[in-house]
From TrEMBL:
Location within or outside the cell: Plastid, Chloroplast stroma, Chloroplast nucleoid
Organism of derivation: Lupinus albus (White lupine)
Cofactor(s) demanded: [4Fe-4S] cluster
Annotated protein name in UniProt: Endonuclease III homolog
Annotated EC: 3.2.2.-, 4.2.99.18
Alphabetized SMART domains for the sequence: ENDO3c (SM00478), FES (SM00525)
Cellular component GO terms, alphabetical: chloroplast nucleoid; nucleus
């Protein structure tokens, strides 16, 4: 141990090892200097005593030789810290994007949506939760949408999942609705309706027939629905489960439905509503999710931000929408989203509730500006 004196700074060299060097200074600013004297230099004892007497006023600065000390995970384990998660912007979800993960699924998704920069304590989150107050003028908005939907000219009105197997006996119809719900993910209504009709015409819309059918045959019949290969596999699994556990019928509870391969909350609620006439929640698809956010009807738990998934939208909507509206809200908004409030270039000029919609004409102007820019680039 030796002490190096230099004007106007005084450095006291306390020691060194392979990983770090420690310097003590009287100044408030760190200065990482190499020792000016060799290690065998004799230092007067008076200087050492002076340094010991002022030790309580010294500042310690550590310089590590390794550029990236590998102690992050250890510190996190010691302090029970969770590593930072980086969230990606989600485009079209996979068909099992909303697969059931248990009753804590919403809480986990809400915590991850807050982000890594701001962390709230549980008590703070509870105090920030929405009180469930209904949005202003929601009844007028809903009545206006009903008037625009009175003609029932949307694809969902004739080819929706709830129309599958309408002429079949109740038991067979429930299975047809379940199959139609599975095939409907990321698939337009007319494509899904065509696949159901082909299965029906070939006698493959029952658990026994699907269980015995070749998977390649099922693929050909349901093509071109989205993810038809995976859906064909799931159809055979579901048919086998229905035969083995439910005597050829479908599960009669939401929890059991959500355990079936490829079945998520949106599909489960639809099957419960249509197949068993048991409304346990709102069926929220991309149309309902989009429209509710445009109308300002929903927001993330404890914030004023838009919901990021249909499942978040379902939970937010159920906090204030009267229960008698839970069943009819899906076909009403789906048809509205197919005809007026479309994903791209919504027809706000034709909408009867545009004066009550906070998003009116915003998406329209954005879409038109993008198309103009595209045409200009194409000319150039």
């Amino acid at each position: 141990m030796f002490v190096v004196s230099a004007t106007p700074l005084c450095w006291f060299w306390l020691g060194t090892n392979q990983n770090q060097r420690v310097l003590m200074s009287h100044t408030s600013k760190p200065c990482f200097s190499e020792p000016l004297l060799p290690s065998n230099t004799n230092i007067p004892s008076s200087v050492v005593e002076a340094s010991n007497s002022s030790m309580s006023q010294l500042r310690v600065y550590v310089r590590r030789r390794n550029k990236r000390p590998k102690i992050t995970m250890q510190l996190q384990q010691d302090h029970n810290l969770s590593p930072t998660h980086h969230h990606k912007k989600v485009g079209l979800p996979d068909i099992e994007e909303f697969a059931y993960k248990g009753e804590n699924q919403l809480n986990q998704s809400s915590k991850s949506a807050v982000g890594s920069e701001v962390t709230l304590m549980e008590s703070e989150v509870a105090s920030c939760r929405l009180s469930g107050e209904s949005p202003a003028h929601w009844e007028k908005v809903l009545e206006g949408i009903r008037k625009m939907r009175c003609s029932a000219d949307a694809p969902v009105d004739t080819m929706g999942c709830e129309k599958a197997g309408a002429t079949l006996p109740p038991k067979e119809r429930r299975f047809a609705v379940l199959v139609s719900s599975l095939l409907s993910s990321q698939t337009k209504d007319h494509v899904n309706h065509g696949a159901i009709q082909r299965l029906l015409q070939n006698g493959l819309l029952t658990p026994d027939a699907l269980n015995d059918a070749d998977e390649e045959t099922i693929k050909k019949l349901i093509y071109p629905v989205g993810f038809y290969t995976r859906k064909a596999t799931n159809l055979k699994k579901i048919a086998n489960i229905c035969l083995m556990k439910y005597d050829g019928d479908i599960p009669s509870s939401l929890e059991q439905l959500l355990l079936l391969p490829g079945i998520g909350p949106k599909m489960g609620h639809l099957v419960m509503n249509v197949g068993w006439n048991n409304v346990q929640g709102i069926c929220v698809d991309t149309h309902v999710h989009r429209i509710c956010n445009r109308l300002g009807w929903v927001s993330r738990l404890g914030t004023k931000q838009k919901t990021s998934t249909p499942e978040e939208t379902r939970e937010a909507l159920q906090r204030w929408l009267p229960r008698e509206e839970w069943d009819p809200i899906n076909p009403l908004l789906v048809g509205f989203g197919q005809t007026i409030c479309t994903p791209l270039r919504p027809r706000c000029a034709e909408c009867g509730i545009s004066e009550l919609c906070p998003a009116a004409f915003k998406d329209t102007s954005a879409s038109s500006s993008k198309s103009k820019n595209y045409r200009l680039k194409k000319k150039l």
